[in-house]
Amino acid sequence: MEPTYAELKKQNDRLQIDLNKTKNALEQATLENKKAEVRISYLQSTLDHLDTCIYIKDTERKYLYANKKTLKLFNCTAEELQGSSDLNYFPKDTCEQLSQIDRRILELGENTNFEVESKDNDGNRIVFLEIKTPLFDKNNNSKIVGLCGLSTDITERKKNEEVIKESQQQLKILNNTKDKLFSIIAHDLRSPFYGITGFSELLIENLSTTEDEESKEYIGLIDTLAKNTLILLDNLLSWAKSQTKELSLKPEKLLLSEVIQEVIVLKKSLSKVKHISLNYEPTDKIELYTDKNILQTILRNLISNAIKFTNKGGKIDITVTTNKELIEICVSDNGVGISKESINTIFELSNTTVLPGTANEQGSGLGLILCKELVEKLNGTIWVESNVNKGSQFSFALPTSI
């Protein structure tokens, strides 16, 4: 009996050891299972809180899983979702579109993204951005076992894009209308003023030898008004182009004295009406590389502004100083001057104070604002110094080459 007892004891000990191993393995498996459940719970909670529809389908395109966002969209429970298809939740034409995409993913294993339109339960249009990817067997990377889809509601974004697109079309129409208006201003409206100013100058010259002072005065007023209006039209066109980025630079090599003298010739008749002397003495032959039309526009406006605010019998001096890198041009007058308060806003569009000239000339105040923008376009700076009843000095500095 003793040998038998000993053998049974050995077998019992081995069984006890195996039992302990099995118990430990079971406890370890239970622990791992709990960890997996926690991870799954966290993952499920994360997916359910996303503002994106997430779902999984099998190779037959039947639903296996969906997060809360998807279930809410489909208006069903997780149990009702199991084994259902797109036909349960979407119109037929939408299902046909989804079917083509799903088959491509399941057959070719391609990732894809696309937009799909459908209708909600109330018949309202909804648009989704669909991102889908194939799911592979973990033991066989070439075997597709289903697909995973992410669907984001982009209905509002789509509406906004369409509104923007429509607005762009309307803006294009408005821009075309604006361009047409500018064309009319630039050609059809400006041309008559050149005729008026030409005839008024002829009349002034013909009357210069007569004693009809009243006619001279009236014709002088016509001449001044026409030229000031023409200046306003030119300023409006230049400013509009600068605001719409249509004012392009065309730099060329220039002789500064020639540019200044050309502008003075244009302004002689305005200064003559008010008996204002317009003085400029060319010195050295100063050359610079810049845009001639823009430079002339700046000079025309500064000289016109000086004439406007200088009393009859006054004077305007144009001077130039230079070094190797900068050229400084100054237009000074002995007119009414500018108050310290006004100087701070004289180049700003927000400045709504537009004063009449010494001969009651009217203006828009746009000239000086345009000067600042154009000087800066030429990579220069502009400033003003003034004293009330003593005159003003407008200066701007430009690089010798843009």
TrEMBL record:
CDD domains the record matches: HATPase, HisKA, PAS
What sequence ranges are listed for the domain PAC?
Answer: 112-166
Q: What is the lineage of its organism?
A: Bacteria, Pseudomonadati, Bacteroidota, Flavobacteriia, Flavobacteriales
PANTHER family from the UniProt entry: HISTIDINE KINASE (PTHR43711:SF31), TWO-COMPONENT HISTIDINE KINASE (PTHR43711)
Q: Which UniProt keywords apply?
A: Coiled coil, Kinase, Phosphoprotein, Transferase, Two-component regulatory system
Give residue ranges for domain Histidine kinase: 184-402
EC number in record: 2.7.13.3
Catalysed reaction(s) here are:
ATP + protein L-histidine = ADP + protein N-phospho-L-histidine
Fetch the Pfam families from UniProt: HATPase_c, HisKA, PAS_4
* Top-level lineage group: Bacteria
Which SUPFAM superfamilies did the record assign? ATPase domain of HSP90 chaperone/DNA topoisomerase II/histidine kinase, Homodimeric domain of signal transducing histidine kinase, PYP-like sensor domain (PAS domain)
A molecular function GO annotation: phosphorelay sensor kinase activity
Ranges for domain PAS come to 39-109
Q: What name is this protein filed under?
A: histidine kinase
* Coiled coil location: 5-46
Q: Which SMART domains match?
A: HATPase_c (SM00387), HisKA (SM00388), PAS (SM00091)
Q: Which Gene3D superfamilies match?
A: 1.10.287.130, Histidine kinase-like ATPase, C-terminal domain (3.30.565.10), PAS domain (3.30.450.20)
